[in-house]
Fold these 2 entries.
Entry 1:
Amino acid sequence: MTPSTSGSPSAARADGRAPDQLRPISITRGWSKQAEGSALIEFGNTRVLCTASFTEGVPRWLKGEGRGWVTAEYAMLPRATNTRSDRESVKGRIGGRTHEISRLIGRSLRSIIDTRALGENTIVLDCDVLQADGGTRTAAITGAFVALAEAVRWAKEQGLVELGAEPLVDTVSAVSVGIIDGVPMLDLPYVEDVRAETDMNVVVTGSGKFVEVQGTAEGAPFDRDELNSLLDLALIGTAQLADIQRETLAEALR
Amino acid sequence: MTPSTSGSPSAARADGRAPDQLRPISITRGWSKQAEGSALIEFGNTRVLCTASFTEGVPRWLKGEGRGWVTAEYAMLPRATNTRSDRESVKGRIGGRTHEISRLIGRSLRSIIDTRALGENTIVLDCDVLQADGGTRTAAITGAFVALAEAVRWAKEQGLVELGAEPLVDTVSAVSVGIIDGVPMLDLPYVEDVRAETDMNVVVTGSGKFVEVQGTAEGAPFDRDELNSLLDLALIGTAQLADIQRETLAEALR
Amino acid sequence: MTPSTSGSPSAARADGRAPDQLRPISITRGWSKQAEGSALIEFGNTRVLCTASFTEGVPRWLKGEGRGWVTAEYAMLPRATNTRSDRESVKGRIGGRTHEISRLIGRSLRSIIDTRALGENTIVLDCDVLQADGGTRTAAITGAFVALAEAVRWAKEQGLVELGAEPLVDTVSAVSVGIIDGVPMLDLPYVEDVRAETDMNVVVTGSGKFVEVQGTAEGAPFDRDELNSLLDLALIGTAQLADIQRETLAEALR
Amino acid sequence: MTPSTSGSPSAARADGRAPDQLRPISITRGWSKQAEGSALIEFGNTRVLCTASFTEGVPRWLKGEGRGWVTAEYAMLPRATNTRSDRESVKGRIGGRTHEISRLIGRSLRSIIDTRALGENTIVLDCDVLQADGGTRTAAITGAFVALAEAVRWAKEQGLVELGAEPLVDTVSAVSVGIIDGVPMLDLPYVEDVRAETDMNVVVTGSGKFVEVQGTAEGAPFDRDELNSLLDLALIGTAQLADIQRETLAEALR
Amino acid sequence: MTPSTSGSPSAARADGRAPDQLRPISITRGWSKQAEGSALIEFGNTRVLCTASFTEGVPRWLKGEGRGWVTAEYAMLPRATNTRSDRESVKGRIGGRTHEISRLIGRSLRSIIDTRALGENTIVLDCDVLQADGGTRTAAITGAFVALAEAVRWAKEQGLVELGAEPLVDTVSAVSVGIIDGVPMLDLPYVEDVRAETDMNVVVTGSGKFVEVQGTAEGAPFDRDELNSLLDLALIGTAQLADIQRETLAEALR
Amino acid sequence: MTPSTSGSPSAARADGRAPDQLRPISITRGWSKQAEGSALIEFGNTRVLCTASFTEGVPRWLKGEGRGWVTAEYAMLPRATNTRSDRESVKGRIGGRTHEISRLIGRSLRSIIDTRALGENTIVLDCDVLQADGGTRTAAITGAFVALAEAVRWAKEQGLVELGAEPLVDTVSAVSVGIIDGVPMLDLPYVEDVRAETDMNVVVTGSGKFVEVQGTAEGAPFDRDELNSLLDLALIGTAQLADIQRETLAEALR
């Protein structure tokens, strides 16, 4: 990656990273004492608290099917961002963006869950953005996986998941990529995100397969080559995130 | 595409189409007498009424910028589907799916609009699904473009858009693609949609560039090759839709 | 009616109709492929899509009574009218006018239904105004009856209504009447509706009895004679609508 | 009316009234010390508190037209009825019935107001049912008129309405009528209301003209003769109510 | 108390009361014919209608515990105050103040109820302010107790509460106290309330024990001595209110 | 306090504290990089993130008065507690408890603010409970003061508050106290809170004056002596909290 950082002035990033370099990633497992699983995840200044709540039973529409359910809710504290936003609870409605991200997180986690192995149990992931600096949805997915894995481990220890069953069939993480001044870049903070011509969120399993590919032309429509460069970058980033997830889960709990 | 339809029994589609074949497409321009632009679009049994409402002025946050605004709202009649759903107006809230699709349609149309050329005017696209049989969001985008183009033409005739300005920089259409029993297929009706392992909605300009690529692993995560086959199909379908849009707009209004 | 059209210039209607003449009426039965019954009804430029959804079972408060339930919901697409209105789903509340009309349609249909013969089944009528040009509620009632009759026929064919039972005890239709410049007129389009001193909606059975009489002095209070003239006109109009309904239902389905 | 009370046992009313007799009516003017006008009205056990709030200025859509505005809101205390209902404020939505009655009261009062004479001022009538025993909407209209008249008198005294202008062009009152066991009856309490085959609310000016006629076939559709008998009764009742209103307003305030 | 009224000019109250004197208190028991218990209570011009609705059974979360439930809802008519407020039902949400007072009334009443003696029954107290002039929440608590006691008596007569069980273990009443120009005063009307430096609502049982003490420094923080003077006054006032409650309940019902 | 900790076994606390001892208190100033002021405060396992958002200008009703405005919003993450609660944004309404605590925090902070010195500026305090173990409202008030003080300091540095003006006239902190098994105790964690017969939240300025005293008999009404013991304890606790606040604010920011 040396060429892109030296030869091209347009590739210079405000935080000095190479185009294919993640921000400093930190995952604090078990940050909350109340939840069955939890993780405080940081992608640079983006900080998301993910908790996993395990309950026996499933929603009514799924009863008696012998399968479990995993869902997610995403939200942002009013002053997570640079200027304060009104609370959605005060406005009395959830905005479209919040809905959309909650649904994305839920789908992403369900892609690596064997709901039969989970049994008739429900896990709700709450992803609350405490501080926002771009990439909150991808940080949320990556952190939520850790909280989910902890909750599954807890459920096994409690005997709430059948002996020998393994609800987690893979890991999953996500990263944002985008094209800025014509250069594809990995893991965009807010200042880059607003300048990106094309913005893509990619959710990838530990085994390198795609779960979600969501690319949007914010500025100008993009061609097949640009799409391919972005996917390449996303695979580099999610492979590293998968490693960090595995290390975090391997460490003994406090 | 001959091999896949003849050699592989799994590729047989209930409606007899080849995997790379669109459903019968029909666009009735000017279906509504009230709106500045309108189109009733049909993708097989999917039927969406798109109207474009032109108003002078822009939302407060855009005032004085010399630019216009294009936005969209998507909704479904309660009995558009096989079983009746409660009205969102009765429930008092708009669901996540509705929000998500409204936002997608808005972004798609803005990608081919030169908001400076539009001047400080607003166009709202309403896409109401009268009958649903899969692909309602892609039909909505494709039909909304026709309604939008009609409203722009109307505004020019009325002198509400500056002489010589051309707000439309390209056309835009959308199609769904998916993998069913391992075979990539174009334009999925409901019965195929529910069986698809991977489902992708692709929004493409008349010049063949991507505006949105939204791929979701409904069943199993997908690999790079599968992604590429789906994008190939989507480009075939949207090229045909662009032709139909152009023909529709060329015809004199009744 | 000859005198009033020839001798009195005030009786001249913009669309050339005689004071006691309906607008062109069109009913397309089975317009929707999804619903158990449906009709697209047109009173001139007013266009309402009526669907009937049949479900087994009744609301909780009616369980075990051996009787069925018929109810209705009325709504208007945002650009059905000359200027766009905000969606009630977006506002998060249903307006008073919408509620009032939904209740009127429900009551009107229940007046000609034998709920015992229907058995413990529910039929919901959705009346969505696609294009509005006055008289939307009366068109909705008239079209909803056709959709209801279709759904009842379907239920009989499916064996969901007891053999020999006849839930429909009569037909029902509705029309608006009003006094404009002192002249009573039948079936008011929007331009006449806003000018009417008195406006009345009358719902009448096929056998010529009143189900609802709702007269409102928009401009000046009205006397007994005016009331009587309006009722006379309403009976002329609803008798013709009843004939059209019967013909529509007699035709074989496409 | 002698024949119907003596000869026909079905005409016997639980409270001993003749078919054409009102319940005891009581209007306490100035019941509230806070409002510009107020009246506590009783139709038998039905008890409605009506207050009129006068404010300078009109809603935005009416500004600069030189005309005033009169509107009304109707509501019921949760335990006004025999069993407690949930509060609409707690449910977060206003029911269809509430909306419908609020609109009816507003229209009725506007029919006897000269909005030009009122000037650019607004009067809001609040009609809160403290105890309900049938006929709450008609009691509300009748009491609201008294509160309105008081508020107009207050505004004149304050010089808020132009010298010599007379916003009130007539009085207005309302009564319910219905057919029970084939006998037309005046002013139905709850026990009669639920048994009525046909139920009609009639709003009449002091000069005997109709403002609203709302007849509904609760049980069986009704014919022209029945309609005429009901209108006769309504005119008897509203004439008496108009007298009581005039007497109440003539008395000096306590 | 003579010294404080004669020697200190600052202690002069607009209505001529001594600092430790209640406003005229009036309680009309059984004001509503519909509820199992009711009272119209007046503290000067403050007028609150309290009804008690008795229903068999308890909320789901309490089922099978052998205990009853008592809860309360407080609300204000829109024109109870000097200027009209929007209805909470129209705004679609209940304000913080309303919630807070409803909860306070509920807690106050539960403090003197033996829920086991009540059995699995629910009593809902509705306190609707018809006219507001300060102290509405304390009037509501005091009046609600009377309505509650009536409902309990009714339930005993109906055999809905076990023979020999006594759900009421004490009486409860409430009063406001405040410091105005340095002088502690009892039972503040609106004009005093807005001027108070410190405002306190105190709920006390008939046996003189505290149920709630809610003191707020509206103007300047207060010290221990001021707090003690206020509590002294509150005990004087609530002792008198307890006497009035007992007398009211001793009288035979009309 | 020695007698109660040694002689009385009932005084033994699960966490080994003396009755008059606070839990370990920690305040991390500047925890959020986005807000003008922030503090993460911990009372044992209770953890609240407080941010202060400074904006120029005041709400409309305060414009032109030359005074500023301070307000607060309190909320709890869904899994802050031992079992997950539904989000208020999802329910579409804010609960009574949330409203009540938000109002309490706002009043508490306004008691030590000179709104004239603040000028026409607004500071919104957001107090989000990340983990709850009793005393969340008192921790929120104590932490919010630190965030507020930071925001005021920032505003002075920015020149947004007039030179020489001092908006903060005192410090403010809060603590809960309660009677458990007859023993008054300071700073109750959740396990003690649910067992308390009487529960009191006391808000006190740095100079030892009361801002709010909110005592509630959860179990049995309390007498004057008990009230006095609780106030004594509260003054001990808030004096210590005031010291910690001062130390925190004296430290240089990281």
Note: Residues 1-9 of chain E have pLDDT under 50 and may be disordered.
Entry 2:
Amino acid sequence: MFTLAEIAETLGRPFEGDGTLRFVRAAEPGAAGAEDLALAMSPSYANALRSGRARGAILWEGADWRDFGLKGAVLVPRARLAMAAITSALDPGPEMAPGVHPTAIVEAGAQLGKDVSVGPYVIIGRHVRIGARARIAAQATVAEDAQIGDDALLMQGVRIGARVVIGDRFIAQPGAVIGGDGFSFVTPQESGVEKARRSLGDQGEVTTQSWTRIHSLGSVRIGDDVEVGANSTIDRGTVSDTSIGRGTKIDNLVMVGHNNRIGEDCLLCGQVGIAGGSTIGDRVVLGGKVGVNDNITIGNDVVAGGGTDIFTRVRDGEVIMGSPAVKMETNMAMYRALRRLPRALEQLAELRAKIKAGGGDGNV
Amino acid sequence: MFTLAEIAETLGRPFEGDGTLRFVRAAEPGAAGAEDLALAMSPSYANALRSGRARGAILWEGADWRDFGLKGAVLVPRARLAMAAITSALDPGPEMAPGVHPTAIVEAGAQLGKDVSVGPYVIIGRHVRIGARARIAAQATVAEDAQIGDDALLMQGVRIGARVVIGDRFIAQPGAVIGGDGFSFVTPQESGVEKARRSLGDQGEVTTQSWTRIHSLGSVRIGDDVEVGANSTIDRGTVSDTSIGRGTKIDNLVMVGHNNRIGEDCLLCGQVGIAGGSTIGDRVVLGGKVGVNDNITIGNDVVAGGGTDIFTRVRDGEVIMGSPAVKMETNMAMYRALRRLPRALEQLAELRAKIKAGGGDGNV
Amino acid sequence: MFTLAEIAETLGRPFEGDGTLRFVRAAEPGAAGAEDLALAMSPSYANALRSGRARGAILWEGADWRDFGLKGAVLVPRARLAMAAITSALDPGPEMAPGVHPTAIVEAGAQLGKDVSVGPYVIIGRHVRIGARARIAAQATVAEDAQIGDDALLMQGVRIGARVVIGDRFIAQPGAVIGGDGFSFVTPQESGVEKARRSLGDQGEVTTQSWTRIHSLGSVRIGDDVEVGANSTIDRGTVSDTSIGRGTKIDNLVMVGHNNRIGEDCLLCGQVGIAGGSTIGDRVVLGGKVGVNDNITIGNDVVAGGGTDIFTRVRDGEVIMGSPAVKMETNMAMYRALRRLPRALEQLAELRAKIKAGGGDGNV
């Protein structure tokens, strides 16, 4: 239960109308009942607001709240930013009992910070260090010598591998795996794939060889304020560590291979895959399903549209798209041209026929 | 052990020949021994049948079963439909002991229906409601206030988040995560990616900003008869719920982001990714690796070929393909033209040279 | 702690300089301290070596180790192969206590080989057989009647399904799922997607139908020396088994659907997806995010670049790329032509205008 005045304070904005209005939850405009705070931060939601039964709402700056039949409102200039504040204030968070559950196994030498919550069947390995106020949900595992900072939230079944080092305020959604082994194999002689990459397509003579494993001696190093989505995987490095910079957010089913160095404040959207050994700058946004080849460099502030396949170096600030990736405007020009191509080929054939027919008199 | 007559009854078809033939399992025609019921529902499998030792088989309608040296057969008009009936009849299902395993933890206020089977190290949260005959395999977790209907099957390590609501006959393969948090972040000022999306490519001046989290207050709502594949993830909504309609089947490693609304009787094949906030109609089939951008609408009865990237609205009944998605016939025409393009560019160059040479006499 | 002479012996190469040099770990050249063995197997790492404090290193064949200020070195002809030997020698491996942890559940009739290590909360199903020296980490589960050979390593939360059969030296990274059900559904009448595939795009009249499940009676059969990455999934077959040949290595988040038959010594890189019923030869390398359609055949020694979508048969030894896949050289020619297309369309339009203008005098 919260009041309009309280939510206004959370948002750092004044309330308009009746600040004593009480709500039990937030709701979309059309679904909002009398006890719901309607969230309608853009005029496109306004009509839905009229059809609902909301008495109070968060609206866009300049909205005429009385016109929607409301008793009160808070007006905000930047809708999504207001959403961050509202949802943070109203999120009950996962229910976790304080303390260490009796079925949790904490191995010798592990150190847990103040006020941690460790759920049932959790396993904390030998010499692990976990900071204050960590919340570790059921069946998560943290292997030997790993370190996690303060205020961590590990959801059910998260796997933190040996010697992984993670900063403060880390969040991992269920099933995320940090610190699996890198995927790195070699054949005794040069393999077909090595030859094909070197020659851009020619494998030469094929020999029958098996793969030998290159083990991962490195680990994973993650900065503060990082979040990793459900069932995503981040592999350990071969010699040095795979690293994820402060503030970077990783969505579900993302794969970060071994030895990658990801910068700060990046967004890696769902199903992004980064092969191995690449360097990615700060504030890079990779849309859903973006693929990044191994051993390349992506600058700062790069934005890649969904489905982009990045095979080569990308410079600071570029907005890219396509497979292989090119600048977005180049991609759109190529695509528009391709749409016109079937018709253009007909025109070309007509032209050739004409020229050929006309060519008889020697002029063309 | 089952007889030919019994399997005929299962299929709702008459048997031919010896209905007392006994089998212990089904097998492919070439591998079938004397105790195996051979499955050969299309003439293309007929020769393999001759080389095997099967005495009985399921064959296509009109097949001459005696000609294959069989003692009996059941003839079926629609092979895959018969497969559904046969495999359902012969599947032993996972072994699960009745009752609640002594190591399972059932929190206060949780209600389990009749005849449930709850495996070792399972955790059922506070106030969870689970219907009759549910089978919950080892180490699955169901968080507080979640509801699951009758006849559910949750395999090992499935994660059901808080407040998720699921209908009857739900099946989740190992490692599926229902109800992780949505991936939703915002910067204090407009970010480069927002500007690039608005301008189709121009980020303007880049500023250094970090991401603030938008929490997920909504949950996930799933209809009856839904199946979710291994290690797939379905995120909760921001304010309202992410929803999956009745009868929809989801393959492995699929990501359904926050606030999506998926219709009924859809098929989402392996590694499909649906970003967030999109609406997908009924009976939509998305092939493997299809990507769907955020906040778009896909109509009913849409079919998208494998690897299609959908960035814009798709109308009812369209069959689409490519990246970006276009109608399949358009995609094929574009592709055929592209195959011819290198040669066409040579022809164009020749033509230009000719015209230029011919142009000297003033005609062209 | 190890000496230069010892690592030389591991590599089967002579050491140069002081064989008694002692190291505690391996390190990259620039980061190497006095107690680290620097790994710098290519001249491109040479400068970093000068700036570090390493006293000993592994270098490329022909390197002048004294010139880098080192006291000793081992020179190797093939860098990555040397990496395999060095990392194998120095990898401590995951910490696992010998024997069966008291919280592990081993069901009746299960047989564990000599010297196994079974971690906390592991579940071994009825009649499972596991070979000698297996290491099964916390919370992994092996379902009824599964068989795993000698020297297996199952990391945390791995799921092995019922009746799965696996050879020796199997490695599964955290969260891998072997033996989930296949994704196979059928409608009573022919569905829109079946019609669209048959007609290449035309669904005909759409009817409202629901999907009936085809159960998976088959299992998964895996040869010796196979590795499966974190959160990858391999589905069981419908009637016969899905199979993975000896020596094949599978990266993270890979999906192998039902009834696929994968050959020996293949590499399936991150996020590869193989739909169902396909046959893949030996020594095939599929780059990251490669998709393989259902029911196709890929020959031996095929190499597919990252992001390739394979819809049709591929012959032995082909190096392919693109969506849909074509030979790499064809793909590059098509792509180069596409880059030139926008300009070519302008040229074509100019030419047409010229011809039209010139056409007035009847010559063309």
Note: Chain A touches chain C through 81 residues (CB under 8 Å).
